Structure to design on (249 residues):
């Protein structure tokens, strides 16, 4: 058997990948976080398959389900919201599967920041404005951040900053970014990107915190800060330039 970790995407059920959907449609056991996975995706699970809602399970209990499926020879789809590469807790599950000798693989999903970018109708990397994107978070109740990974340090180059899991700490976000970005730096918050409840806030680093409070947002949103959010008059990229020598590939 194999445990297939599948990124379910940012919330819209049709943003799961074709590969992820095929795995889901043939799984014998499906594990999912009930509050984060759309009901439409669970409707794709084969009749008779075991469905396990993991939102109230701890890691040891999750591993027990893996072991039971392994003993029965049943393939597992472990659905995670968003993409597996960011804040998914896949690493700790994979470590235990390796110790148990259970095979696993990873199927990527659409990450929340990509869905937020699409909702804003923007490319995050704009020629000579922002060419780097920093994906990060703040630490409070969750795991601590490494000592040098502060917003002040990460923002020192002026890259486009994308913050996950930080909406409830928006005042702290603003305070730490202001010295490097300034009050007039464009900022945006996208709540429930790709979902029916989606809400977009646009502003600057100087006013975005108040907008978040006025909207009553505390979670399930992505914060973006950087000049590319309001770039205008920028040069065209080299990719389609008539000056590019296409013979060189």
């Amino acid at each position: 058997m194999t445990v297939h970790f599948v990124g379910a995407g940012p919330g819209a059920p049709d943003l799961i990948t074709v590969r992820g959907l095929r795995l889901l449609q043939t799984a014998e056991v499906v594990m999912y976080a009930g509050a984060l996975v759309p009901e439409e995706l669970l409707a794709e699970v084969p009749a008779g398959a075991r469905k396990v809602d993991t939102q109230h399970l701890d890691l040891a209990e999750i591993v027990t389900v893996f072991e039971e499926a392994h003993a029965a020879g049943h393939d597992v789809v472990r659905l995670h919201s968003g993409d597996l590469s960011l804040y998914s807790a896949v690493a700790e599950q994979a470590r235990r599967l390796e110790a148990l000798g259970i095979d696993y693989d990873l199927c990527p999903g659409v990450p929340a920041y990509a869905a937020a970018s699409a909702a804003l109708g923007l490319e995050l990397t704009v020629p000579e404005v922002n060419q780097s994107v920093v994906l990060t978070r703040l630490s409070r109740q969750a795991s601590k951040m490494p000592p040098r990974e502060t917003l002040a340090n990460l923002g020192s180059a002026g890259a486009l900053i994308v913050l996950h899991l930080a909406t409830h700490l928006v005042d702290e976000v603003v305070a730490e970014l202001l010295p490097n970005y300034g009050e007039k730096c464009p900022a945006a918050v996208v709540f429930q990107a790709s979902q029916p409840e989606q809400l977009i806030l646009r502003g600057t680093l100087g006013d975005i915190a108040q907008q978040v409070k006025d909207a009553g947002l505390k979670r399930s949103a992505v914060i973006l800060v950087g000049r590319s959010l309001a770039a205008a008059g920028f040069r065209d990229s080299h990719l389609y330039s008539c000056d590019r020598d296409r013979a060189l590939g």
About this structure: Helices lie at 18-26, 39-42, 59-72, 90-100, 112-120, 151-154, 170-181, 208-215.
